[in-house]
What does this fold into?
Amino acid sequence: MGWLTLLHAFDDNIFCGIVVLISAILFTLLSVAMALLLQRVHALYRTTDASFEKAQAEFSHGVMSNQTVKNATATAASSAAKNAFSGQSNP
It folds into this structure.
């Protein structure tokens, strides 16, 4: 649904044209809002002295040092390896 569909919808039926018009307006407003939010997040990110290296370090020290996460990762890896070598697949 979009602005090009809107032109053909009014030719066929006025009610369908109005529905497509409302849909096109809402999708346009949504895409503008998402672009503005993306710009705000990017501006916020640039002003916080953040970097990809800092994010990686935070992840490795915060998440991967958690014993529960380590156990879950080890269990998932060993289970996947056992299934791969035995020829079984998990649906």
